[in-house]
Amino acid sequence: MILTTCAACAAPLAHTAPRCGVRWALHEGRGSTGGKRRQLRHAKTRYCNETCQHDHWRRGHKQICKRIHRGGNAEQYYADKKYKEAVAEAVEKCADDTKGQTCYICTQALHWKTKEGLVRGCSCRGTAGFAHVSCLAEQAKILFAEAEENNLERQPRWNRWHTCTLCEQNHHGVVRCALGWACWKTYLGRPETDRARCFAMTQLGNGLSAAGHHEDALSVNEAELSMMRRVGAPEEVILGTLGNLAGTYCDLGRQECALRITRDIYQGFLKLNGEESGDTILASINYAASLGNLNRFNEAKSSLRKTIPVARRVLGESHQQTLRMRKTYAKALFLDDGATLGDLRKAVMTLAEIERTSRRVLGGAHPLTVDIEDLLRDARVILRARETPPTSA
């Protein structure tokens, strides 16, 4: 992970923590009366102090230190290792879906260099959208490099790190995680203030969350927030980073923490950009979802009644965030203990409608579609139980 803990004792590290670096040793030259110093390079693995460093070396780090250094030092070595593991996981997860297909970028079934198999983690249907993670990553890397070199608009090209070229929808699950590691390992060597490096850390955190690695995502989110504050990032960027942290808190069941942060983020974006900003709309969804997670359904519904019309007007009916917002509202309707029969019917009707839209736009395998299907099934069970008259004894 972003190397934020001591390699020996796992204690949290400051960004200025010592690491094994270059040191010098006396080399006795053959046939000479004097000696000369030779440079010993190490892997820049991070430690609390010299005691932890010496302990880690005694426990075996010395044997692999040179190999790690040749791999680009500790952070790069670790990122490369985790990237390969993430690609293998994604290929295995997608194996049944990709049989008999070829990569739409290189047109091969196996990658010519890495020999990795195919993946598909977007909203493409039929024979479209199959690719190697390495091809997707190389494509994104080249496009962004062209933007940097030729002063082109960067955001559309950066989006290739998380968005499919063909269907224009985000990658999800283990494919998103593998691309997150690919992005991080590409830009981690840049200065801490470099925007691509900052955004790469965001992609890694989002990818880990998408694959369910929430503890790892938390480590990245916290490191990213610390870095953004340290380099003096704009308030808008800080709020976005806090949003990722709040999402991870929610995934880990820390709902009170998530609610405090999402409320502050929503108010911050509302003040900065107004209610029609995409950032404000996303923040309002997360705030309402946090209220719902704490069974504060009346507050969630009240908030969503104000923001759903804005999302429909600004983003459109079939936009993913509009679907998320309506899903959250329907969930608050049918889970509320005080729900009327009309509330339950409205929830079922809403979920059935957005399930069809989500399936059409995002595909049946998309996490949002799956989530809506599960909620629709639960809502129908509750509605049937309410509509069925009790049998007499």
From TrEMBL:
The entry's keywords: Metal-binding, Zinc, Zinc-finger
SUPFAM superfamilies for this protein: TPR-like
A GO term, aspect molecular function: zinc ion binding
InterPro entries noted in UniProt: NLR-like, TPR-like_helical_dom_sf, Znf_MYND, Znf_RING/FYVE/PHD
Keyword match Metal-binding: yes
Domain MYND-type intervals: 6-65
Protein name per Swiss-Prot or TrEMBL: MYND-type domain-containing protein
Organism: Pelagomonas calceolata
